[in-house]
From TrEMBL:
This is Galactokinase. Residues 283-361 form the GHMP kinase C-terminal domain. Gene3D superfamilies: 3.30.230.10, GHMP kinase, C-terminal domain. The keyword Cytoplasm applies. The keyword RNA-binding does not apply. NCBIfam families: gal_kin. It comes from Parabacteroides chinchillae.
Length: 383
């Protein structure tokens, strides 16, 4: 995202002076889907696409905000009853309110922002927006909040002001991202560890199916309930098991006849997926990207056949990746549409993109969108 472009819009819409410019990225998740609510691990990284905002305290108790992409201007106060109607402005308002709830003293400010995180591609543009403002306002108004609290502020904004009951992975990756590294986040303890991700000779590319099937929210709840039933059955033999993260396949097999075949399949996927995250971390420590790719394919198979959250379009893109010799490919995110994430050797990249685009268009009548991503730094001040 061009800093000078954001600055020019800021100068035009406000008093002709400049403020400070901050940025936060979107994210990918290399592996570890539907593991978060099962007490397991996720493995995200920040990407080279995100949000950029210019911000300057204005000495009032009013926020004056301009969305460059939407060409929309909103003004609002900092009290609970001042919540703006515009959905994009509620993210900024929510961050302000969550900082205030934590004892931060912030005043009014002028701001203009823009982003290049593709909407609907599962790269978390909303988390990038929240993290940008949490990081910036914490610094500008000397609130003294640590990075963990900034990530929690973004999550609480989603919960309390935007009606989305999300986990913390998106905001965590946006705030804590580091170029050349992925982050293994323990969703139970919130302990985290960086692992090297420098795939020389490979590219990381998302193929957006440009579909979103409407099953997602009800299907998500059903799968969560399946996991909880499996845990309840296992607990009878192993009382210390709190999440599927604590269970083994042997313990699941002990209760195979006590739960439905569907619940068994869901739990099998989750237990195996939690182990796959650990296996990928081990592989990255020795630079073994072939094993990383193999585990990605295993995840796709599990999400498609056991957890049943894939769809025809995503399975098609995964099959094309296999046929083209792509090292690793899987559905990224909750499923039922969105993107596949693909680890591709550079010498196979052009042929893969050409074949995937052509055959997908022939089959589904639309082109997939292609997003190359590079693992990059998290929230930061640019100037």
């Amino acid at each position: 995202m061009d800093i000078e472009f954001v600055r020019s819009r800021f100068i035009k819409h406000f008093d002709g002076t400049t403020g400070s410019v901050y940025a936060s990225p979107g994210r990918i998740n290399l592996i570890g889907e539907h593991t978060d609510y099962n007490g397991g691990f996720v493995f995200p990284g920040a990407v080279d696409k995100g949000m950029v905002a210019e911000i300057k305290a204005n000495g009032t108790d009013k926020v004056r905000a301009y969305s460059i992409d939407l060409k929309d201007y909103v003004e609002f106060g900092l009290n609970e009853e001042d919540a703006p109607r515009a959905s994009w402005a509620r993210y900024i308002f929510g961050v302000c309110r969550e900082i205030i709830k934590r004892g931060g003293k912030i005043g009014g400010f002028n701001t203009a922002f823009a982003g290049d995180v593709p909407l609907g591609a599962g790269m978390s543009s909303s988390a990038a927006l929240e993290s940008t403002y949490a990081f910036a306002l914490n610094e500008i108004f000397n609130c003294g909040l640590d990075k963990f609290e900034l990530a929690k502020i973004g999550q609480a904004t989603e919960h309390n002001y935007c009606g989305v009951n999300c986990g913390i992975m998106d905001q965590f990756a946006s705030v804590f991202g580091k170029a050349g590294s992925l982050i293994r986040l323990d969703c139970r303890s919130l302990e985290y560890q960086y692992f090297p991700f420098n795939p020389e000779g490979y590219k990381l590319v998302l193929l957006d199916s440009v579909v979103k099937h409407e099953l997602a929210s009800s299907a998500y709840n059903k799968r969560r309930e399946s996991c909880e039933r499996a845990v309840a059955a296992i607990q009878k033999n192993h009382p210390h098991v709190e999440f599927l993260r604590d269970a083994t396949m042997d313990w699941l097999k002990e209760v195979k006849n006590e739960i439905s075949a569907e619940d068994y399949m869901r739990a099998e996927y989750v237990i195996e997926e939690i182990q796959r995250v650990l296996d990928v971390c081990d592989a990255l420590e020795i630079g073994d990207y072939e094993t990383v790719g193999k585990k990605m394919y295993e995840t796709h198979h599990g999400m498609s056949k056991l957890y049943e959250v894939s769809c025809e379009e995503l399975d098609f893109l995964n099959d094309i990746a296999k046929k083209c010799g792509v090292t690793g490919s899987r559905v990224m995110g909750g499923g039922f549409g969105g993107c596949t994430i693909n680890l591709v050797k550079e010498d196979k990249y052009d042929a893969f993109i050409e074949e995937a685009t052509k055959t997908y268009k022939e089959k589904f009548g639309r082109n997939p969108k292609v997003y190359d991503v590079v693992i990059s730094d998290g929230s930061r001040k640019l100037c």
